[in-house]
Structure formats: C-alpha cells, structure tokens
Amino acid sequence: MSSFEEIRNERIKKLNLLKGSDINPYPIDAKKDYSTEEAIDNFVKLSKRKKPFFMAGRVMTVRGHGGSTFIDFLDDGVRMQAYLKKDEVGEGSYRLFIDTVDMGDFVELGGTLFKTKKNEKTLKVSGWKMLSKSIRPLPDKWHGLSDIDERFRKRYLDLLMSVDVRNRFIIRSKIISEIRSFLNKESYLEVETPLLQPLAGGATAEPFITHHNTLDIDLYLRIAPELYLKQLLVGGFSKVYEIGRNFRNEGISPTHNPEFTMLEFYEAYSNAENQRAFIEKMFKLIVKNIFKKSSIEYNGNTIDFSKKFSVISYFDLLKKYTLMVNPFSLTRDDIALKAKQFGIKVEDHEAKEKIIDNIYKKICRPKLIQPTFIIDYPAEFSPFAKKKENNPLFIDRFQLIIGGIEIVNAFSELNDPLDQKERFLEQDRKRKEGEAEVSPSDEGYLEAMEYGMPPAGGVGVGVDRLVMLLSNTQNIKEVIFFPTMKPKAIEYSNDQEENL
Fold first, then answer.
1. For the segment 100-138, what is each residue's pLDDT rounded down to a tens digit?
2. Minimum mean pLDDT among 205-209, 358-362, 420-424, 486-490: which range?
3. Across all residues in the chain, what is the average pLDDT?
4. Quick one: which of 31, 359, 448, 482 could link to 54 by a disulfide (CB 3.0–4.6 Å)?
5. Pick from 28, 58, 21: nearest CA to 133
6. What are the backbone angles phi and psi of residue 20, rounded to the nearest 5°?
C-alpha cells in the first residue's frame, strides 16, 4: 500500500471516529462572524470583546505542545493563528481535536482575540466544530505542486498553496472590473450574443462543431461575436461591448488556448483612428488604477505606459526587420522561399498574405516591446475592414503589440453590403482551395447590412493576453483558471480493472 493510501485510510478512520462520536463531519450550518482579514484589521476593537465570536477556515498547520495546540487557519487567502488549550475547550473536546483534525480540514472556531508573547494576533479558542473533513492530504507546503501540468489540472490546490498564483487571478478580476467600469462610464452598453451560432463568422479561425438534436442542425461554438454585435448597431445601439468566451479549434501555445476571453466593443460614427486613441486612454488608466504607477515589468523589460504609444505601418515593420520592401510585389513562391529561410513552415494551401503574416509573427512581432500600434494592412488581411479612401490597397486597421504580444485588433468597420458580399465570395473561394481559417458567407448578416449600418470603429482585446502582460506571466495557462488540457490517463489497480 502506498503512503498516500495509508494517509487516506488513516483520515477515513478519523472521519469514522467523528461519526462514532455522533458528530456530523459535514454539517449544514456554520457560524462565522468575522473573516480573518476583518479580525486582523479590527484587532484592537475586537480584542476588547469578552464574549466569544466565531471564525472559520481551512487548517494549514497543526503544532501540538502537550496540553495546548497552535494552528494556522486560512480564510479567503488570509492566514491567522489560533490557540487551543485543554483547560479552555475541555479535555474531551481537546482530545477529539487532536485525534481527528488534519491539515486541510475546515473548522469553525469560537473564541476571543489576544496577542502571544511573540506579538502575533491570535484567536484563543473556547470551542470548535468540524465543518468539512478532508480525506486527501494537501501538497507539501514547501514544494507545492512541482508538476506543472498538475498545477493546471488541479488549480484548486495551486491556488491554495501559492500566494503568487492567487494574486495573479485577483489581478485578472481587477482588470476585467476596470474594463467594465471604463466602458460603462463612456456610455457603452454591455450585451450578450450567442455562443452557439449557425455560422462560424467574424474572424479567421477554425471552429468547433456540434449538433443540435431537436433542430437537427450543426452549430458552431463562436469564434467571435463580431457579426452579432454589428447587427446591434443596425438595430440602433450606438455603443456596445461584450466580454465573453470565444472558441477556436487551433494549436495550443504560450499565447493560445482553444477557449479564451475576448472583449469586443463597437462605436457608431467612429473609426479606427478614434478607437486607437480610445484604447490608449483605456490601457493607461487600467495600469494606473491597478498598480498606482505608469510602468510595469514584463519578461525582463520595463514597459512604460506614460508615453504616447508608437505607430508604425505593417510594411515599414517588415522592411525594418526582414528587409522585404514590398512583399506583395513578390510571387507566392518568392515569399514561401523567404519564409523557409526564416525557418517558417509553409503549407501548400496557404495564400501569400498568410505566409507574409507568419513571417511578421515570428520575426517582427517579438521585437515590439513598448506599446506599438501597427497600421496600414493590405486589403487581403480582413474581410470586414474598410479600405482606406486614399489608397484602397490597404485597410483602415490597427493592432496593438506590447511585450511582443498581440493584445488588440481593430478596424473601421465595413458597412457597404455589396463590397461585403464580394469579400465573402473571395473567402469562400479560399475555403474551397483548402484554407480552413476563413469567415464564410453570412447571408443573414448581409441582409442586416442592407437595411443600413452606420460607420463604426470596432475593437477586439485579448483579455487573457492582457492579463499575461499586466501580471508578468509568459504562459496563457497561468492566467486561465482551468485551461484546456489533455485528460490524464487514469491508472487502475488490478482489483479495479477486474470490476470495469
């Protein structure tokens, strides 16, 4: 029998000991007058109380000293010490505590506050109650979860054993709250659009497919909410936003998870240039409000948000780092050869613009550390962006790169239904030639556009990547509570296998 099984069996014996003493180890009721944080912050006032009050939490350490025991208990991320003395709680209750309580158990503690000789704020316990008996032991407090995959699969333990991990997710929550607050103050309306969609449109990505039995139709987990949000512009709303999940059936990498959180917002009568200024204002305010300063550390670099964000055209960026002056004047074979020289794999079905963009992503994007807007993309790069009036070979689009990561994608929204139809047809042609990551023709969206859609600026922000940046994290799995993982193979004992 393994040491884990021995520990588990020993804890089950303790569980049965509680039951044998007519104690429910998982009661319905729990008393909690103050959190550990409240008790510590209001210690002077609460320590004057003579009447016991109740606190609760998870036992993290147990240190016995004859007729007395010290424990540390954890409540919502804040630890506090408690002191049990046989003479105070009674011999029977004290013995039951010693015999049944382990690290990981949830307990209710009644008592009063005092300071130890070491000046530590402590709860002097006059009575206790088991709230939840843990069967499995927590990881060793010094080593935590050493297996990275186990940390992601068992995030609950990762959060419990690592203050840094817990704080990272608190930062995530603050970032999303700041986004909402900023957009709400700017008179944006938060809305919800379908996650299950009859067409996977609004972005260039391969979707997940499912089937609805009653309607007997295939549906797609959304790759973007874009086309629905723009229909709300047609419907008369002038400023809308959504923070929600998108799903893309693509590779997993340090910056890609198949299920991820996006912010998309659209403003009627705006354009890409206006939204560029709006994004800069929003990001600077988020950093200031959360960190109380205008710079952050990311991957060994200090990123300064106090200065005006840089702006560079897409072709100037390629010229600067790849020496390609005008890549669209080259043939596809020339571009493919250039990509292979950079160590980039080229698929037979990939169009010229796809290969060029892969070169940009590997060679140029990692060089952009300080906040940088990239503008003036070739028209082939998006079927939903307006072409520039002074040069229709380009679209009025920008991306924001910080720390070598693409955080924002945005453009002046195409609102010409006839032009949109032609672009859809071009996307359909690419799909027939093998491109899986294209946005298919959407007749419902085209019909909505024909009723009239106002000019608008639309913006998409990768929330997970923004959290990565602001929490100085280099892997997207570190900022998603439960990232997509391959299931761990289940190991069965011989006896279990016989019963399968």
1. 999 999 999 999 999 999 999 999 999 999 999 999 999
2. 486-490
3. 93
4. 31
5. 58
6. -65, -20
For residues 470 and 476, give the distance between their C-alpha atoms in angstroms, rounded to a whole number: 12
E strands present in 151-298? 189-190, 196-197, 209-212, 217-221, 239-247, 259-268, 295-298
Nearest-5° angle of CA 379, CA 380, CA 384?
A: 75
Q: Which of 85-89, 359-363, 444-448, 486-490 has the lowest mean pLDDT?
A: 486-490
How many whole angstroms separate alpha carbon 17 and alpha carbon 30? 21
Q: What DSSP element (H or E) covers 315?
A: helix 314-322
Structure tokens given for 398 = 């920008």
Residue 143 has pLDDT above 60, yes or no: no
Residue 437 pLDDT exceeds 60:
yes
Q: Where are the beta strands (DSSP E) in 194-308?
A: 196-197, 209-212, 217-221, 239-247, 259-268, 295-298, 301-304
DSSP string, 8-36: HHHHHHHHHHHHHTT--SS-S----SS-H
Strand-strand pairing, 295-298 and 259-268: unpaired
The percent helix, strand, coil of the chain (3-state, each to 5) is 40, 25, 35
- The two tokens of residue 180 are 């909402």
Both tokens assigned to 276 = 């560029």
**Rounded to whole angstroms, what are the CA distances from 180 to 183, 354, 410?**
5, 34, 18
Max Cα distance, the chain (Å): 89
What pLDDT is recorded for position 141? 57
CA–CA distance, 407 with 479 (Å, rounded to integer): 15
Q: Round to whole Å and give the CA distance between 349 and 352.
A: 10
Q: Which residue type occupies 235?
A: G
CB 361 within 8 A of CB 370: no
Look at residues 405, 385, 384 and name the one whose alpha carbon lies nearest to residue 395. 385
**Residues 2-31: tens digit of each pLDDT:** 688 999 999 999 999 999 999 999 999 999
Nearest to 111 by CA among 119, 102, 103, 121: 121
Closest Cα partner for 107 from 64, 54, 57?
A: 57
Residue 368: CB atoms within 10 Å = 22
